[in-house]
Write a structure and sequence with these properties.
This protein has 399 residues and is α+β, with helices and mostly antiparallel strands. It has three domains: 205 residues, tt1808, chain A; 86 residues, no CATH class; 61 residues, no CATH class. 46% of the residues lie in helices and 12% in strands. The strands form two sheets. The protein has an eight-stranded mixed beta sheet, with helices on both faces. It has a two-stranded antiparallel ribbon with strand order 9-10. It is elongated and about 110 Å long.
């Protein structure tokens, strides 16, 4: 069972620095076991010196049978800290007191530290947490344990503090790297991975747990939804009033109006050989207008390509197409045979999709355009070339 730690508020930079100075003067040497080290030293380091609120921490979080000592979260989990007993020290080469070390060096030369680093890296990678740290209360090693830049974590670098005194003397680096605000701004990644921090602060919405989400409707909203489904859906589906309804009730924003204009010009360009048969010569159009790129130029370049309209469910793709056919580009569609196949509602109930499409095409040609594809004259017209070829062949007498 996970233990959720609670705290009323996080602490400021100056408060945390003062707490670390107090920890430096009050801490005496010893060989505490892991539980006592956590109680006396690591809890104070995390919550008093780095300013994390205890509600941001889950202790002994279980995942796949493994328990992580400290899992710290902002709006998501960002840091896992593995605690070691006070007697386990991280040895470093004599005469070297750098803030950063290559992880390959730390893993190669120090067996105890290697085991701890690999343990916390495994926790981070299994849980999708970017930053891992190991501490015995006095020393601290932090590194990027779960990377997304195509580089193996062990080829990176680690930030190392060898004592409380080092943490105090370089407190700004400690704070920027491992405090809640520092991790929110990606300061440790920027330092160890060599990438610049984001110039913009995170959106406030990212700090809200469970956002974005769904809010239940009240009774009034539910009544409106039922009314719209009973009345408006039937109105839009009525063929005899569809054009009038779309003309009177369709709301065109500036973007939709521009899309409709461009779509109409694409249709004109695509069927220019039919609509402009008497003026086949080229025309001159400005490439850019006050509203942007000329729709005529754009439509001409796209006229031979298929048009794919995509968007989320319910954003108005179908209504946009129906409005284009019956209102916006009605003069274009009046001179063409338009077939509209509804795969969303009707085709979903059909047993054989191919047969449904063929039957729907025949029905629309008959009902909307008075073209009977089964009439004798139509069939003879369609197969006229084939019949003429047959008549001139060796079996022409059978025609």
């Amino acid at each position: 069972m996970s233990e959720i730690c609670l705290r009323e508020r996080s602490m400021s930079y100056e408060e945390c620095r003062a707490m670390l100075a107090r920890l430096v003067t009050s801490t005496s040497g010893g060989d505490r076991n892991e539980a006592t080290t956590r109680l006396h030293l690591i809890d104070s380091l995390i919550f008093d010196c780095l300013g994390w609120a205890k509600e941001d921490c889950v202790s002994e979080e279980q995942h796949g049978g493994e328990y992580a000592d400290y899992v710290l979260s902002t709006s998501r989990r960002v840091l896992i800290i593995e605690a070691k007993r006070e007697g386990v020290s991280f040895e470093l080469p004599a005469g070297e007191y750098r803030r950063e070390y290559a992880l390959s060096q730390l893993r190669r030369d120090y067996a105890d530290l290697r085991a701890a680093l690999e343990q916390v890296a495994g926790y981070c990678q299994e849980r999708g947490v970017p930053v891992g740290a190991v501490t015995n209360g006095h020393q601290l090693v932090a590194f990027i344990a779960s990377r997304g830049d195509g580089v193996a974590p062990w080829e990176g670098r680690a930030l190392l503090f060898n004592s409380h005194q080092e943490m105090l003397s370089d407190f700004q680096v400690l704070w920027d790297s491992l405090s809640k605000n520092g991790l929110l701004e990606g300061r440790l990644e920027a330092r160890l991975l060599g990438i610049g921090p984001s110039p913009l602060p995170p959106k406030l919405a990212s700090l809200i747990p469970g956002y974005p989400g769904l809010k239940g409707r009240n009774e009034f909203q539910t009544d409106l939804k039922i009314l719209s489904e009973l009345v408006l859906e039937d109105l839009t589906g009525g063929r005899e009033i569809e054009a009038e309804f779309l003309s009177s009730c369709y709301c065109r924003s500036g973007a939709l109006s521009q899309y409709a204009l461009t779509s109409k010009e694409i249709l004109r360009a695509r069927y220019s050989s039919i609509f402009d048969a008497h003026s086949p010569g080229p025309s001159l159009e400005p490439a850019e207008t006050r509203e942007g790129i000329s729709p005529e130029i754009l439509s001409e370049s796209l006229s031979r390509r298929p048009i794919l309209l995509i968007g989320d469910v319910g954003v108005g793709k179908t209504t946009f197409i129906r409005h284009l056919i019956h209102v916006e580009a009605r003069d274009v569609f009046d001179d063409a045979l338009t077939l509209y196949i509804d795969f969303g509602s009707k085709a979903a109930l059909a047993e054989h999709l191919r047969q449904f499409v063929l039957e729907e095409i025949g029905r629309q040609l008959l009902d909307d355009h008075s073209v009977d594809i089964e009439s004798r004259s139509f069939v003879l017209g369609v197969y006229h070339k084939n019949l003429e070829r047959f008549r001139s062949g060796i079996y022409g007498s059978l025609r």
